[in-house]
Task: structure prediction
Amino acid sequence: MKIGVVVFPGSNCDHDCQHIFKDVLGQSVEMIWHKETSLAGLDAIVLPGGFSYGDYLRTGAIAKFSPVMGLVKEFAKGGGMVLGICNGFQILLEAGMLPGAMLRNKSLHFICKDLSVKVENAATSFTSACQPGQVLKIPIAHADGNYYTDPVTLAAMQANAQIVLRYCTPEGKVTPEANPNGSLDNIAGIINAAGNVLGMMPHPERCAETVLGNDDGKLIFLSMLESLKQGKKPLQMAPA
Amino acid sequence: MTKELIAQHNLTDDEYQKIVGILGREPNITELGMFSVMWSEHCSYKSSRVHLRKLPTTGPRVVQGPGENAGAVDIGDGLCAVFKMESHNHPSFIEPYQGAATGVGGILRDIFTMGARPIALLDALRFGGLDNAKNRHLVKGVVAGIAGYGNCMGVPTVGGEIVFNDIYSQNPLVNVLCLGIAHKDKIFLGTAAGIGNPVIYFGSKTGRDGIHGATMASDSFDDQSEQKRPTVQVGDPFTEKLLLEACLELMAGDLLVGIQDMGAAGLTSSSCEMASRAGNGMDLDLTDVPRREPGMTAYELMLSESQERMLMVAQAGKEEECIRICKKWDLDVAVVGRVTGDGILRVRDQGKVVAEIPAKSLADDGPRYERPYSPPGYQDMLTNLNYDALPDVKDANAALLSLLESPTIASKRWVYEQYDHMVRTNTMVRPGSDAAVVRIKGTNKALAMTVDCNSRYCLLHPYEGARIAVAEAARNLVCSGAEPIGLTDCLNFGNPERPEIMWQFVLAIEGLRDACEHFKVPIVSGNVSFYNETNGLSIYPTPMLGMVGLIESVDQTMTQWFKQDGDAIILLGKTREDLGGSEYLKVLHHREQGSPPLLSLEAEKSLHDFLLKAIRDGLVQSAHDCSDGGLAVALVESCISGPAARRGAVVGLGLDTLRRDALLFGESQSRVVLSVKPELVEQVLKRAGEADVPAMKIGTVGGDRVVIDVEKGQWSEGCRIDLPVDQLFEQWAFSIERTLNQA
Result:
C-alpha cells in the first residue's frame, strides 16, 4: 500500500507516522508537501500531529487553506481513507471534513500522558482489528482537545455510531474522571458519516512498538491496512 | 566617547583603552556596542577561561570538544551524539515565559547548526519556595515557556530536575540541555572559510528586541531589574521549526562551508566568530538585512538578539540553491556579505562603512582575568554542625511523609505532563526514573541522559559538591543500564568579582576535573553563567551537569521501579553518618549545614563497573540511586514511581553505630537500591563481593504497605516505618500541584 503523509509547515509527527507505516509495517510512504498539486497513486492519507503554522490563530485554522487540503477533500469525497491525528484531527474539523470544533483543554494546560480509550465502534475501517468495547492505552499530547459540537449534531453522531473512541477508565468505564480535557461526551475520536475520514486526538503512532513499552496503537494502522487490502468500500454509516 | 557611555556598555576604563589600542583610534558607537557584547562575561568567558582550561575535554569518543556550537561524541554506527547545555537564567527571571522559551530555542539552534537533528531536551530548574507568590508565578511561567517552545518544535522534553530553595527566589535558574544525532562525517562547524564565499542571512527578520541581552546576562540584578524587560527576546517556535527543517535540507546538499546561529550578540557574534575561526575577515552589508521595522541603526542591527536567525557561508555559486531552500520554508533570506582575507570584520550600511574591527579581536582577544579568590569568612560556620544538638528522629513515618511532600523530592508530574515527552517516538524511559532513555532509530542502541547538581553540597564544599555531581550523574546513567560517555556543564555562580564566589568557582572546576578524569568522561561543551546575584545575595554555587550514556542494546535498559512481588531488595554501598547538607536536615531541622557526604571515587567506580555488568548480564530487575532523602526515600520511590502497578516492600535494617535519621534519610554516596529475582540473590551478592562493592539483602518486594524495620543499635533504639503505599503515593505524586492550586 502507498500511504501519503501530509507535511504542513509546523507538522511534527510526520516522521513518526512515516516510521510506523514504513519501518514497522513495511508499507511505502510518500511525504506530501502542503503545496502538492496531486495525490495520484495514494491509497490513504494521514494528516499528522504537530503545530501547523504554529497554531498561532486557532489550531488548524490556517492549515485548512493549504493548497493540499482541496485535494484531500476530493480524495475523501471519492471514498479515500483519511486519518487525522491530533493536529490532523483539528485540521479536519476546521476544514469541515468532520463536524464540531476544538476548545482549549479544561485545565488550560498542554497534557501529555497515557490514557485509556474505549473502542465504541469496532466496525470501521480504522478499528476493525479491535474488539468491540476494547480498551486501548494510547497517549495524548495536546492543549486543544476539548471537543465540542451542537446537540443536534451530537445526537446524530451518536445515532450513527460515529463516535468511535471515547476516554474511559482502565476498566472501560466512560466517566467524567476519565475525561482529560473536558471533551463533550468523552469524545476522543469521531468518523464522518461516510465512514472514510477518522479524526482522533490520541497518538496511536506513539504506541505501536513493543520497544516503547506499548503497541496498542498498532491496531489502528493494522485496521487501515486490512481494509485497504480487502479493497472494502468504506462502511456507509448514514443514509446517503 | 563619554565615560557614561562607556560605563553604560559595562566596559571598564582599562577595557576601553584596550579597544582604542586595537583600533588605533576611538571606536564609534556601533563599534563600542560590538565590543561591549563580545567582551561581556557571557560571550568572552573573561573570568572563567583560565580555569576552564583545566577541564578534561578529550577522549577516544570525542568528535568535537568545547569551542564550537556544541560538543559531539561518537556512538558507533557512523553516528554521534551532539549536545550542550545552556543557561537562560537572567531573562527567565525578568520574563519567565519568553525567557525560558527562548532558552529552549537557543540551545536547539546550537544543536541543529551542527547538522544534528535534535531528539531530546532536558531542563534543570531552580526556584525559590512555593510558599511565595512570585516564585509560583515564575514556576508556572517557566514551565509554560519550555512547553510552549519545545512542544511546538516537536522535540520531546524527556527529563530534567527541579530543586526548590529560597536562595533562588531572586535568581531562578533555567538550564536547558539539547541532544541531537548527526552523521559523524557530516558535522557542520561555524567557520567562514574560502575567501570570496557568500555570507547568507536567513530565518526571522531582525527587530529591536534583545539588544544588549548578553550584557544584561553579565550583570547582577537589583530592584530596578524590571526595567530590563526589553532586553528579553520573544520566541517564535514555528519559525524555528521551519529554520530547523531548512537547515537540515541545506546540509543534505553539498552547499555549505560553515553555519552558525545568531544567539547572544546576534549578527556581531556569528560574523566575527565564524571569520575568526577560519582566520579570515568578513565584509557585511546591512542594507539587505531583513528587518521588522524601518529606521533601525547599524548599532541596533548588529546588536539585536532577535531569535530564530542564522548566518551561513555557502560555497560560491551555490547562493541560488540556498535561497530556494530557505524560500521553500517561507524564511527571510539575503546575501549580506562575503568572506575576505584581511581578517577585518567590515560592516557597511547604505554604502557607508560603519564598523571596521579585526574579527579576532572581537572573538578571541577579549580581556582575560585571573580574579582573586579566597574562601568566605562564613565557610567554617556552614560546615561546623554539632549533630549532638540535633535530636534523632522519633516519628519516622511523619519524617518520611514530610520528605515526600518536599517539592524537591516530590514527583514532578505536574511539570512533565505539560511537556510533550514522547514526540519522535523514541522515548523508552520517560521522565521520572533516574535517567531518561531514548532509542536511536536505525540501530539497536539507546542513549540515557540525566542532569544533576546538588548545589547545597557545593555551597558547603564546592570541590566535594562538584565531584559528587559527577558521581551522581554517572550513577544515574549506570542505573539505567548506560555507560557514561560525555558531559556538558552549565556553571551557574554569583558575581566573579567577589573573591568568595571565585573561590567557589575554582574549587568546583577542580572537583569536576578530578571526578571526570577518574571516570574518564570528557566534558565536550558547556556554558558559564555568572552574576546570578540580586541586591548582593548570590545563589548557591550550581555547577549543573548534563551527562550522556550509551546503551549498546535496547534490551539492557533499566528503570528504577520494582517489577515483581517476591523479588529481593539489595542495597549496594555503605551507609555512613552522612547527614550534612541533606534534604532531611533542611526539611526537618531547617539547617543547611554540615559537610557534604564523603565520596570515594574508587568505590564509586567499582560500583558502576559491577552494576553495569550485572544489568547487562540480565541479573537486575530494577536499580535506583540513593540521593535526596536517602535510603528510605529511594525505597519508597522504587515502590511508587513506576508507570504500572505500585508495589509494597518489607525491609529490615540494622543501626549498628548509626543514628536512626542517618540510616533512613542520610545521603551517603555510592549507594543503589536493587531488586533481583530471588533465585539470583546469591549470585549478585557473590559478584558484588568479588568486585569489592558492599552489598546486602535488606528486604522483599510485595504487599500494599512500605514497612522498614530498624533494629536497635549500639547507641540508639530502633524504629519502624509502616505506611500504606497508596498514602505514600498521594503524598508524593500531587504535592506540587496541591501547593500551586492552594495559592
